[in-house]
Amino acid sequence: MDENSHNDLEQVRREYSLDQLDESILPSDPMVLFGAWMERARQSENPDPTAMTLSTVESNGQPSSRIVLLKKIEADRLVFYTNYHSRKAKEIRSRSRVAAHFYWPELERQVKIAGMAGPLEDAESDHYFQSRPLESQVTAWASPQSKVVPDRKYLENEYRKYQEKFKGSKVVPRPAFWGGFAIIPSRMEFWQGGLHRLHDRIEYTLKKKHWSRVRLAP
Ligand SMILES: Cc1cc2nc3c(=O)[nH]c(=O)nc-3n(C[C@H](O)[C@H](O)[C@H](O)COP(=O)(O)O)c2cc1C
User: Is the C-beta atom of 57 inside 6 A of ligand 1?
Assistant: First the structure.
């Protein structure tokens, strides 16, 4: 690798020009707009349109981010699944404020969400768990997510152990330490890239069950 090849990042840029946001024709409910944007993203070439960066807060106030996959959009909540002993789950249980972020480069769009998260009812997690491929179900049992493990071999052995345990069973039960969280958004910003960096930003805020919206400068 050329020793300077990572030093030309200042030259990496592109123009954004695909679309514009006209607030006079945007829905008054941002979850409706979000659903429509997700449908567009699913039709694009993006291999992970449902991937979102989920940020939680550590006890000392330090933000902590990672990607998770969005699994459901409902009228007032967004659902994802994870290990309830993971770092993110512990952080949500002690501080429920979260941020979620989507970037769809093919559409020159991002959505920035702030809200509160909490665990789903067991029945809802059970239902989703049963829809997952068998291998993913076994991995949910085998992986002590976010814990330090000795090496890869340990994980492969754990996988084999649970594979053996559930061999011949009709269903793999959901581990009690694995399930969903729902995010209830209270702020949602829709960003559409614009020519000459004159991007469109429309921010919706929920107050007393009513969404209002403003335009922000790019
Ligand atoms: C494309 C992609 C999708 C992922 N989807 C999930 C997911 O849906 N749930 C999950 O727990 N981790 C998912 N991960 C792994 C997380 O990013 C993370 O490594 C893991 O959840 C542990 O995070 P934590 O230690 O901060 O709790 C995904 C990672 C990538 C890159």
Answer: no
CA angle 108–109–112, rounded 5-degree value:
150
Q: Which domains does the chain have, with CATH numbers?
A: 13-131+178-215 (2.30.110.10)
Render each residue's pLDDT in the chain as its tens digit; 218 residues: 555 667 899 999 999 999 999 999 999 999 999 999 999 999 999 999 999 999 999 999 999 999 999 999 999 999 999 999 999 999 999 999 999 999 999 999 999 999 999 999 999 999 999 999 999 999 999 999 999 999 999 999 999 999 999 999 999 999 999 999 999 999 999 999 999 999 999 999 999 999 999 999 99
CA distance 183 to 99: 9
Q: Does residue 48 line the site of ligand 1, with CB under 6 A?
A: yes
pTM exceeds 0.90:
yes
Q: The tokens 């969903």 sit on which residue?
A: 180
Establish whether 201 is a catalytic residue.
Answer: no
